[in-house]
């Protein structure tokens, strides 16, 4: 039973490592999409794509135990709900919220990557 | 449902990472026979042949979301009453009520703990 538990733990750790490895690429895409949302005219398709990616990142990150990342992604996801509902350009307040949550998302990702590379928190 | 053992689960989820975690949680930890589909349409094709005891549907999926898949599943011969659990990120209570109104067995929230997901499902199954 202990062997099985250890094996499951190792598999989970391996999956978490794979997730961490892909994190920079995923974050880069989110940042690009955020730039489009924040600086270009409102694009519903970009908003939907970003919302979906943040949703996935929140769910997966949380299941790997990356709570800070999961919460940050969820917060960004929530901030996109209202503009998507109204389907119109972001207000200054909404832009500020998105800038802030993107900063938190970056920090949460950096924390995971630093841990992976053995750096202290 | 407690009188019928839960053995076969059809799990529908488009995210490859979550698919892998779910496989670990349901097969390695839970000991269930699991078929994983990436899309609603794929699940609708697979269901008649796989004959699951339970279907788990991610709510937010591209093209055909969990709710549309649920409704289409109900129209398949032999699936009018197959238990379905929705898997979703935290949502408003209003949305959860809507899911129950549709007729889902229960709702499990993401992120889930891969080490306890199977137990949660077993408890839900036994409670019905």
Structural description of this entry:
The complex is a heterodimer of chains A (121) and B (128). Chain A is an all-alpha fold and 121 residues long. Chain A has a single domain (2-116), classed as Up-down Bundle (Four Helix Bundle (Hemerythrin (Met), subunit A)). Chain A contains four helices and no strands. In chain A, helix 1 runs antiparallel to helix 2, helix 1 (2-39) packs antiparallel against helix 4 (92-116) and helix 2 packs antiparallel against helix 3. The longest helix of chain A has 38 residues, at 2-39. Chain A is elongated, with a radius of gyration of 16 Å. Chain A starts with a helix and ends in a 5-residue tail after the last helix. The model of chain A has no long low-confidence stretch (mean pLDDT 89). Chain B has one domain (8-121): Response regulator (Rossmann fold). The mean pLDDT of chain B is 93. The A-B interface holds A 4, 7-8, 11-12, 15, 18-19, 52, 55-56, 58-64, 70, 74, 77 and B 15, 17-18, 20-21, 24, 28-29, 60, 62, 89-90, 110-115.
Furnish the topology, listing elements before pairings.
The complex is a heterodimer of chains A (121) and B (128).
Chain A: H1 2-39, H2 44-63, H3 67-86, H4 92-116
Helix pairs in contact in A: 1-2, 1-4, 2-3, 3-4
Chain B: E1 8-12, H1 16-29, E2 33-37, H2 40-50, E3 54-58, H3 66-75, E4 84-89, H4 93-102, E5 106-110, H5 117-127
Parallel strand pairs in B: 1-2, 1-3, 3-4, 4-5
Helix pairs in contact in B: 2-3
Give the percentage of residues in beta strands of chain B: 15-25%
Structural class, judged by helices and strands of chain B? alpha/beta
Helix content of chain B: 40-55%
Oligomer: heterodimer
Q: How are strands sequenced across the largest beta sheet of chain B?
A: 2-1-3-4-5
Helix content of chain A: over 70%
Please report the first level of CATH classification, the CATH class of chain B: Alpha Beta
Under CATH, the homologous superfamily of chain B reads Response regulator
Helix tally of chain B?
Answer: 5
Low-confidence stretches of chain A: none
The span between the termini of chain A is 34 Å
What average pLDDT do the residues of chain A reach? 89
Report how far apart the termini of chain B are. 5 Å
Write down the CATH topology of chain B. Answer: Rossmann fold
Q: How much of the sequence of chain A is in beta strands?
A: under 5%
Q: What's the main sheet of chain B like? A: 5 strands, parallel
